[in-house]
Structure formats: C-alpha cells, structure tokens
Amino acid sequence: MLAGLTGLLGACHHGGSGGGVATGAAADAPGAPVVNLYTWADYLAPGTVAGFEKQTGIKVRVTTFDTNEVLESRILTGNSGYDVVVPTAPFFERQIRSGAYQPLDRSQLPNLGNMDPQIMGSVAQNDPENAHGVVYLWGTYGVGYNEARVAAALPGVQPDSWRLILDPTYAAKLAGCGIAMLDAPAGVVRLVLAWLGRDPNAPSAADLADAEAALLRIRPYVRSIDTTTITDLLANGDVCVALAYSGDVHQAARRAHEAGNGMRIRYVIPREGSLLWFDMLAIPKDAPHPANAHRLINYLMEPRVIAEVSDFLFYPNGNAAATVLVDPAVRSDPVVYPSPETRQRLFVQRQDPPERARAITRLWQRFKTGQ
C-alpha cells in the first residue's frame, strides 16, 4: 500500500519526534488545583491544555520525554510526581506487571463509552480488561522516502518493502542520499524479524542473532539512528529514506511543502507487514492528584477534543465517537487510518521478558556503535 503525503499537510508524529527534558513534576503552589502530565513532545493540539484549564480550572503542568525507556525509568523508580503519563503499550504491559499504575476508576470516566471497542480490544493484549489505561493515539511504523531521490538511486524499484532499507544491496545505493532509522530497539528489531520471516514476538536466540547480523550488514550505510531528528532530516533533504513513524513522515511532507523545496515525501507500510503501536493514558500508582488525573483523561476522551488532536497530529485516535468529527481529509487518508486490508498485515508488539529485553538492548547497542 503506497500513499502520497503531500496532499495532506498537517504536523504530526508519534511521541519521540522531538525530545523533551524529563525534569520531574514541578512543585504545586499551595491550594492550587493542578495535574502533572508527562508525555511525548508536541503531542497535543494547540488548544488542548487551554481548553481543559478553562473547563475545569485545573492547571496542567506538562513535562516531556523522548523515549519509552526514559519514561519507564522514571515510573519504575517511583515518586515521579506525575499524575498522567503516556507510555506505549508493550512498555505499559511490563510496567503494569511491576505495579507501577493504579487501576482506572471507571465511575470517574463517563467518556469511556466513546472508545472504539476494536481498538481497546487490541490493546487488551497488553492491558488485560483495559483495567489501567485508555488508548490516546495509535499508528504504524513504515518507510518514509523522498520520491525523486529514491527513484534516481534505485531506478525501476518499487519502494514497497523493508528491503529498501534492510537489504544491503539497496542500502548501499541509498547511502549517498542518506538513510535514517528510529532509535527504537524493541520495535525496529521486530520489524527486522518480520522481514526475515521470523515470529517478531517470540524470537529464539538464533533469530535475534540473525536480526543483529542483518542490522550490522546495513550499518555502514545508515547516516542517523535518532528518533528526534527524522522529521527534519527528511524535510530538509538530509536523508532520502527513513524507517519512521507515520506521523513523522506526514510532518516532514508538510515542512517540505511549506519550505517550497520541491521535495515529495511519501510513506509506505511495507508488504511484509509492520508494527501497530498504541500510546496510552495512564495514572501512576503514586500520582499526587488522581482525581484531577481522571478528569484530564476523561477530557481527552471527549470526541471534539481528541478529534482536534488527530486533525493537528495526523494520528488516529482510539475514540469511535470522534471519527465523524475528524477532518475528512485525515480520516480518509489510508496512511493515517490504514484500510482493513492493510491492517491485516499489522501486528501488535507484546512485552519482552527480561532476558529477551536485555538481549535486544545489547544487540541494539552493538548496531548503533557498529561493533
């Protein structure tokens, strides 16, 4: 499935496309109603916070992070001071098992009735019975590419496969115009496993060794392994192809269009299949303001509120009642809302047991350093 992005011009990215500093929640002024939100950078619509503050009188203090690993270290350490956090589902699964979150009080979340049962059912693989979290936004991993430059480097090649990046023969030809990759170990390794025809959620030690070997073969041709810079690199023409989140590529297309640089940035979900991710809204076990946390989550489940977020970020949300309110150009884009046929090729990332998680971390470090 190949879709152009230049006709849909909206800023978006999955969390991680723009880093923030994890500084911890600020101290509250005595008596001031507050809620401390820890989320990915630039992951709200422009009016989201102001609308909540106006409606409730509760001040929102936003702190940002740029990787799930950073969030996890803060949450598992405890005493973070945060009331609402936004982990990605497989990390959320592990954190739930560690006792990091309190169960949601459904009586304080009347807008739960707006949620898409299919989406919530999918993420129940990570959060049984949806007891601890609500889907905020979701999306896919795929290949973002500069149409003209890839065509020049690989004439006649249809850019619809992971081999565009993972086959060293192709990667060598694209190295001159630049390859970028997400710094997302668990996700990217699963995509390599899928490309190799292995089970991405239950790899053997030999499977992981083969995935590492495949990554090391392309390492000399990869210019950047950094989630926070992919959007700018694509938009500015510093790379011509990237393993990226769908939203990052949309944003790159928008920036290229606004700059008038003539670059047509496109996005494809490879035919071998890809990873479907969910970002969750959850309340840490020791949240200082749990009632205010529930109010913020409930507000984000209001259809008009989350529709504005999807319109701005070009990511689908988990709210069925919001779909009709999303801009038609957004909800009809198969890159933003994959077709049922495309979704058959998507899989959900499950939690890695500790030994496998450590193996992937070591594998990824060797890939990044090229050793």
How does this model look, in words?
The protein is 39% helix and 16% strand. It contains 16 helices and 11 strands. Residues 1-13 and 15-29 have low confidence and may be disordered. The protein starts with a strand and ends with a helix. With 371 residues, the chain is α/β, with parallel strands linked by helices. The chain has 2 domains: 13-139 and 277-339, D-Maltodextrin-Binding Protein, domain 2, CATH 3.40.190.10; 140-275 and 350-369, 3-Layer(aba) Sandwich (D-Maltodextrin-Binding Protein, domain 2). α9 (205-218) packs parallel to α16 and α10 (230-236) packs parallel to α11 (246-259).
- State the CATH topology of the largest domain: D-Maltodextrin-Binding Protein, domain 2
Order of helices and strands: EEHEHEHHEHHHEHHEHEHEEHHHHEH
Supply the number of helical segments.
Answer: 16
For the report, how would you describe the main beta sheet?
A: 8 strands, mixed
Strand content: 15-25%
- Per CATH, the superfamily of the largest domain is Periplasmic binding protein-like II
CATH architecture of the largest domain: 3-Layer(aba) Sandwich
How confident is the prediction overall: mean pLDDT?
A: 90
Could you say which structural class the secondary elements and strand pairing correspond to? Answer: alpha/beta
Distance between the termini: 35 Å
Strand tally is 11
Low-confidence stretches: 1-13, 15-29
> Which oligomeric form is depicted?
single chain
Shape: globular
The CATH C-level class name of the largest domain: Alpha Beta
Q: How large is the radius of gyration?
A: 20 Å
Give the fraction of residues assigned to helices.
25-40%
Structural domain tally:
2
